[in-house]
Amino acid sequence: MFEKELERVRKHLRQHLATPQPYVSLQSVMSAEAVHPAFRTFFQAEVAWWVHEEQAIRTSNPRFETGHQEFRDLFRELDGLYARHARFDHEELNATIDAAAKTRLNYLCRPRTTLKWFVFRGEPTKPLQEILLRLNYLYDHRYLINGFEQWARTRGSDTPFEILSVIEFERIVEKIDNDAILDLSQGEFVRLLEPMYEFFATYNPDLPVEAVPTEAVIIYLDDKGAVPISQSLERLLYREDLRFLTRSKLLEVIDDVIASIDSTGMPTASYETVTLPEPAHPMMVGEALSLAADVGLDEEGPALEEIVPTRPTVEAGVDTTVTKAMPPVDIVEATPGTDPEYSAPSVVDQPVPIEEGPSQDVQFEQLLNMRRDRFATLLDERTQGKVIKKLFGGNTSIYSSVVDAVLESDHWKEAAGKIDRFFAEHRIEPNSAVAMEFCQALHRVFIVS
Q1: Measuring CA to CA, which of 207, 227, 326, 357 is 20 to 30 A from 43?
Q2: Which tens digits make up the pLDDT trace of 385-442?
Q3: Residue 34 falls within a domain, yes or no?
Q4: How far apart (Å, rounded) are the C-alpha atoms in residues 32 and 171?
């Protein structure tokens, strides 16, 4: 996912940083005004990591008392020289460009998960000093970085030597994020996505003006635990082919979800966006999401922990070079929602026309068979088994009859209505992971390739 944008980032960075000389100095990178500060920050932090590695090598030799003040003064000067005269050969330059591009996009779309994997790289613990060094690579969502640095300052003089587990790190980051979101209005919450809007505006000129891919926002909201909003967007994506999202449309969706929570204590189960009366005292985004979590609205929804293991993971014990430090949940491969194989529809729903005339019945049967064949390719055997078991009580004949009834529809809107009625009659939660997978596969049958 988002390969085109990543390739444009790489091309842009190579264009402004490449040189016929065998090395590119850090100073030239930092002075390249055409390069976004996020990428310059990444390069600077990579050099700081090199210096950290040199420090570790120096202090690991027991033959010398390197902790003596004279050594410390000398090393401080030496470290400054390292940083001022650092340089990248062409292989390191390309590797760092690739890592910087992927890391920034991952961090923009999935900040909490990217923080965990970029910092810990699959290891269970890290020294706090190394955690802080790794955080220096990241430019966007500064409130998360600043919040963790502020927490670290409260730890006292032994901070660099403290060991922190990945679980504790996740807990701290989640608290920092939740505290920051708690009192945000809808507009302020949407402004958190400004770096994402900027990124896609710069590196995808084919997008509509002032819009980002809906999948990117779904990933972002899932990462934040804003499941009611992400599920509402996901329904709009595969039901109405809302592939791009403006700020105003996102605000509209958030307003509708919050209004439904404020009115009923839970988001509306309808597949359509419902505009409810404005409450007398509007909830803030954080309050609404907390209420949604309290009543267990996302118990059936796709949890991040359920999705992560299906992605490539970083093995413990990898070396510390930047090319091995990539977060395993790569936005290039990661997708929103519950289905790792899901890709957004590329064409607006259109009914396949059926000609009038004596052969209409024959043509209809051919169309139905074609849709059955297509549906069979969109729902693998394992997923089909889950659908039959959890939605149809294990009854294969009922499953087949419902699928046929849906596939006989003239167009997707009619098909979606049949699915809604079946879910309502049998009290099936439409936001559950299995229900969403089932609906996504049926929806894609009606997409004309």
Answers
A1: 207
A2: 989 998 998 999 899 999 999 998 887 778 887 888 888 888 887 767 788 788 878 8
A3: no
A4: 37
